[in-house]
Amino acid sequence: MTAPKPVLISGAGIASLLLARSLHRSKIPFLVFERDASIVFRAQGYRLRLSAQGIDAIENVLGPTGFEKFYDACGKTGGAGFATINPLTGETLGGGVPSVRSEPLTGRDGKVVGISRGDMRKLFMEGLEENVRWSHQVKGYETTSDGVRLIFADGSKSEEGSMVVGGEGVKSEVARQLTNGAVKVYDLGARGIHGQAPTTAFKGLGEGVFRFVDDTTQPNGGKVFLITNIRADDMDKPDVNFGWTLIGSPGVIKAPNDNYTIIGAPAAQIAKSLTSHWHASVMPLFDNMVESEAAFWKITCSSPEGVPGWPNDPRVTLVGDAVHAMTPAGGNGANTAMRDSALLGRLIGEAWGRGDCDHWAGVTETYEKEMRVYASEAVKASYGHAEGQFGVKFDPENTPTINEYVTPN
């Protein structure tokens, strides 16, 4: 008997690695191809708030033992819940939860559950290292008479696989090719900076999820918005850093050459200049920054009109940001990606058990039909949160995209 061909996964982000974990538990062969040289190549990351649905999806994939280890690594916040602080006066204003927020803040057991993107990747990849191929930038794929191959930037090709899953983010080449450019990611104009500081910098705030809104000192009616999650269990650990996300409405935050890959000190200095006039009680978040962990980025989103359709290919599909990019508002993106991985992994596993792995009959079609429903709702909610919080506006005719597709001749 010939060995079964592996599932080829493009990208080693959290959606791809959770899918890989699902395939591993079902003893389905797979290979992951990632453009970075190692898992620490882009060490900068930020904490992701996990919703109940996101946690359930992860638990379904990891199983009891694996999930226990994962959940123990998560931070849990209770206490004050969600509060708004005036950064100009330091005054706590109370709940202040935006009316557009419809998703519950808590994830499980009445707690806000969070974990850094980097820690998620490490936990999902643990034990799978031999299946990950680093320094392989995917530029597309080709179908064969009995399978599919990934094509890399240097012109080389992967071994033949039984399926390709594009999970390489908002500039996914697999998504461009599969959908003929139907999946678009829009630059909403808002800009963000992720930062970290030691727990001692947060002592004055207490436990909870806090948002700061500066909408009176920015030019042209713009605003600066910051959110942070402070966990009581970690407050007295000096070797732990808490993170925050600073976002400016369109036109407020500018970076050299509008380069959203800026990391380290240049990104940290942008954040410090934007907040230099804030109240002394909140300045420790910036004065004590771990500058090497700062990262600048653009706020992007797929069309809030929903995930588009494309002719189904039983051997190729997409997960995570490659198919439904979202703003950070509302915390929908990572949780929706977790649902993708759990759903697709389950469907592939069921087909494998039936012996349908030669052609994966109906797997991608069933997955995409269900994914379009929940992901379209999540993208719409994510955009609605960002519109209210960050002042972004989506116009399909005039909002620029970051992943324009040129149809091959």
From TrEMBL:
<keyword id="KW-0274">FAD</keyword>
<dbReference type="GO" id="GO:0004497">
    <property type="term" value="F:monooxygenase activity"/>
</dbReference>
<dbReference type="InterPro" id="IPR002938">
    <property type="entry name" value="FAD-bd"/>
</dbReference>
<dbReference type="Pfam" id="PF01494">
    <property type="entry name" value="FAD_binding_3"/>
</dbReference>
<dbReference type="InterPro" id="IPR036188">
    <property type="entry name" value="FAD/NAD-bd_sf"/>
</dbReference>
<keyword id="KW-0503">Monooxygenase</keyword>
<keyword id="KW-0560">Oxidoreductase</keyword>
<keyword id="KW-0285">Flavoprotein</keyword>
<protein>
    <submittedName>
        <fullName>FAD/NAD(P)-binding domain-containing protein</fullName>
    </submittedName>
</protein>
<dbReference type="GO" id="GO:0071949">
    <property type="term" value="F:FAD binding"/>
</dbReference>
<feature type="domain" description="FAD-binding">
    <location>
        <begin position="315"/>
        <end position="381"/>
    </location>
</feature>
